[in-house]
Amino acid sequence: MTDQKKQNDAQQAREEEVQTEEIQAEEASTGTAAEETQAGDAATQGEDKVDPIAVLRDEVSNLKDQLLRALAELENTRRRAQKDKQDAARYAPAPLARDLLAVSDNLSRALDSVPEDLASDARVKNLIDGLEMTRRELQGVFEKHDIARIEPLGEKLDPHRHEAMFEVEDPSQAPGTVIQVIEPGYVLHDRLLRPARVGVAKGGAKAETQSEETQAPANDDGGEAAKD
Questions:
Q1: Cβ-based neighbour number of residue 104 at 10 Å
Q2: In the sheet that 191-194 helps form, which strands lie side by side, from edge to edge?
Q3: C-alpha angle with apex 159: 105 to 136, nearest 5 degrees?
Q4: Distance of alpha carbon 130 from alpha carbon 177, whole angstroms
Q5: Who contacts 194 (Cβ-Cβ below 8 Å, separation ≥6)?
Q6: d(CA 84, CA 75)
Q7: Of 4, 8, 28, 5, nearest to 16 (Cα)?
Q8: Residue 1: is its pLDDT beyond 70?
Q9: What phi and psi values does residue 131 have, to the nearest 5 degrees?
Q10: Measured between alpha carbons, how far is 88 from 108 in angstroms, rounded to an integer?
Q11: 176-204 burial, b for 16+ CB within 10 Å, e for fewer?
C-alpha cells in the first residue's frame, strides 16, 4: 500500500511538472509575440513620424521662391509700362508730323516752280519771300520736335532710310551711290517717318574701267618678267 502511494505521488508530481513546463512554454511564447508586436508598432510609428521642422522649412523655401518670382515679374511689368509710357510721349507727334510733311513738300514745289524771269518782279518776289518764310518756320517747328530731314545726296544707299526709285549709269560714282534726291526723308528721333526717295548710280562703266586699269599694270609686269 505504501509503495502504491509512493508511485501515485511520483506520477502526480511528474504530471504537475509537465503542466508547469507547458504553462511556462505558453507564457514564453505569448511574451515573445507581444514583444514582436510592440517592436513592429514602434517601427511603424518611426516610419510614419515626420519632422515638423523639415516640413516648415520646405514650405518657407517654396513661399520664398514664389515671392521672388512674383517680385521679378512685377518689376518687369513696371519697366515695360514705363518704357511704353516714354515711347508714347516720345513718338506721339508722329501722325501729325507725317501729315505736315506733305505741306512742306508743297511749299518747296511752289518755290521751285517759280520761273527765274519772274523772280525779279516785285509782286512775285514778295510771294516768294512769304513762301520761303513759311517753309523756314515749318522747318523750325520740325527741329523743335526733333524731326530731322534726310538729305542723302552722295551717300551710300541705305535701304532702311532710302527708297531707290531708279538707277542711272554714272561711271564717276561708285555703285549704289545716291546721285539725286527726288523727295527728302524725315525721322522723328530715331524712328523713320518717311524714307528719302532717291536715284542711285549703277557704276557699271566705272567698275569695268577700274578693272581694266588694275589688270593692265599686272600684265605689263608679267611681260617684263617673262622677258627677263
A1: 20
A2: 147-150, 185-188, 191-194
A3: 25
A4: 35
A5: 98, 101, 183, 185, 186
A6: 14
A7: 8
A8: no
A9: -65, -40
A10: 31
A11: bbbbebeebbbbbeeeebbbbbbbbbbbe
Which among 105, 109, 129, 107 has a CA at the least distance from the CA of 119?
Answer: 129
Arithmetic mean of pLDDT, 64-68: 93
User: By three-state DSSP, how is residue 195 classified?
Assistant: coil
Q: Assess contact for 200 and 177: CB atoms under 8 A.
A: yes
Transcribe 136-173 into DSSP letters: HHHHHHHHHTTEEEE--TTSBP-TTTEEEEEEE--TTS
As given in the structure block, the three cell numbers for residue 21 are: 513546463
Q: How far is it, in rounded angstroms, from Cα 72 to Cα 153?
A: 49
91-135 per-position pLDDT tens digit: 988 999 999 999 999 998 888 888 888 877 888 888 888 989 999
Cα gap 142→96, rounded to integer Å: 11
The label of the residue with cell 514583444 reads: 35
**Model's pTM, two decimal places?**
0.58
Distance (Å, rounded) from C-alpha 150 to C-alpha 14?
129
Span 150-167, pLDDT tens digits: 999 999 999 999 999 999
Helix (H, G, I), strand (E, B) or coil at 203: coil
